[in-house]
Each structure stands twice: as structure tokens, then as C-alpha cells.
Amino acid sequence: MKLWIVAQVKSVDAAGWAQDWDFAGAFTSEDKARDVCTEPGDCMWAVESDTFLGRETVPAPGMSFPAGEGS
Prior knowledge:
10% of the residues lie in helices and 39% in strands. It is mainly β.
């Protein structure tokens, strides 16, 4: 099952990595996740449930910032 993770980035380092963020929720559809991404720092990405992604620090796959799109 695909879940859409939503978070709000609070601060980033010089390389652009999120250093501080708040988890906002997990949603069963992209539309539901997009509906709550209303602030510029809000981001979302999809993950498959029950899938271990490892412990490396890597960017979230397909992360987008819907509130900032089109501006």
C-alpha cells in the first residue's frame, strides 16, 4: 500500500538538507496529502508501507513542495 507522508520543514543546512521538521501525517492518497500542504515549508512524498528503506541519510524519494509549485 502506498502512503503519502507530509511534513513541514522548519530549517535547512547550507547544503539544503532539512535539519528540523515536524511530521504532519500519513495519507492514503496523493490528493489528501496535497490538500494539507498549504504552507511553503510543507512537503510530501510517497512510500510503500512495510518497506524498510535502510538507515542511510538520503533525500525522500519524489519529495515535492505543493504550496510552492507554480509560484
